[in-house]
Amino acid sequence: MQASDRFNINSQLEHLQAKYVGTGHADLTRFEWAVNTHRDSYASYVGHYPILAYFDVAENESIGRERYNFMQASDRFNINSQLEHLQAKYVGTGHADLTRFEWAVNTHRDSYASYVGHYPILAYFDVAENESIGRERYNFMQ
C-alpha cells in the first residue's frame, strides 16, 4: 500500500466521521464515546414521542415521568462533558488523572513563569525582598 493510498483512506474516514455524527475520531477514548452515545440516546428518547410512549408502557410510568427521568440522566452526562470542556478551556484546573502533587508543581512552575514575565510583579518582589530585579528574575528561574 502506498502512502497516497493511506492518505486517501484516512481522508475518506475523516469525511465519514464528520458526516455521521457519533462515529468518533482518533482522539476519542472508548469512555468518551460511550458517554456521548448515552447522552445522545437519552436526548433522542425525549425528542421522539413514539419512543417515549414505548418506554412509558414498558415501565408503567407516565410520559411526563419518563421524559423527566431521561432528562435527568442526560444532564449527568452533560455535566461531565461541561467539566471536561472547562478543564480544557482554563489551563491549570487539572483533570481526573492529575495528582495533588502534580497540580501543585504545575501551579508553582506557572506562577514563577508569570512572575518573570510580568515586570510590575517582578518589581513588587524586588522591593519586598530588597533585591535587584535581575537577582529576583534569576531566583525565580532557578
UniProtKB/TrEMBL annotation:
Pfam families reported for this sequence = SF3b10
Q: Tell me which domain of life the UniProt entry assigns to the organism this sequence originates from.
A: Eukaryota
The name this protein carries in UniProt is: Splicing factor subunit
Per the UniProt record, the lineage of the source organism begins with: Eukaryota, Viridiplantae, Streptophyta, Embryophyta, Tracheophyta
